[in-house]
Amino acid sequence: MEAYICSCCGMNLKVEGDLLRCDYCGAAYEKDDGEKAAAKLRGVLDEAKLELLANRKRILWSAAHERYPSKERVVEAANAVLSIDDSDLLAGVYLHSHDRDPMKLNAILASAEAAESQASEIFRWLLPSLSPRMVGPLHDFVDRHFSNERRIGLITELEKEAAKVSEGIYEAGLPREAFL
User: Fold this and answer.
1) CA angle, 177 as apex, 176 and 180 as ends, to 5°?
2) Which of 7, 14, 22, 82 could cross-link to 27 by cystine, CB 3.0-4.6 Å?
3) What is the pTM of this model?
4) What is the DSSP letter of 11?
């Protein structure tokens, strides 16, 4: 059932035959005018949703690219983006990279289809917090998303980081979660 909104007061209109009437302000509209107004309102709402999504993505981007990103701020911003667009790849990666269940992140990496710039961002985000469980899925992700020349460099970088993780080497310049 189509919902019609009064253009004067914003309240719902009641259908009375070929007329639409507002109980709140008393305005009356022909049904065709109400359908045009409903279509216009849907367009405005879609525009507002896109603008809200763009703002939330901007907040997520700035939270993730601070010098020392706050885990809470990144998770909150990623959840805000995913509340509007649950298929957003970067927000999913940002959120699940901080999650305690690495299988979710591995599933995202296995099924992700991303442009090279987005894939590069995902690789750069995940590399500093690399865990042994993530090496294989990230390697497969790089194989699928990068051209041969770039792939070789990224896989070499990934293997060097994986060797550090497996040997327990810690470099002060890399952000890691530490418990004291």
Assistant:
1) 120
2) 22
3) 0.64
4) P
